[in-house]
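User: Could you check the structure of this?
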Amino acid sequence: MKEEHKKIMIDSLTAVRPYIAFLGELRAIIEKEADECENVEAFIEKLKKQHEKADIIRRTDVQIFLSELRRNLAKLGSD
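Assistant: Sure, the predicted C-alpha cells are below.
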C-alpha cells in the first residue's frame, strides 16, 4: 500500500479518535492490515469483512473510521 494512503488512514483515525470506543484495538488492526493489503480498497473490504460479526460497538467504531477514511480519500482524489 502507498505510504500516502497509510498516512491518510492514521490521519482519519486521529480525526475520529473522540468517537471511537476501542481506539487501541482499532489502531492495532489498522496498522497490521495496512501492511498486509496491497491497496486501500482491499484494506477497506478486509476490515469490513472482519467486523461483520463483531459486537455493535466495534462495528460502529469501524464504520466511523471508514466514513472518515472515505471522506479523506475523496478529498485526495479531488486535489
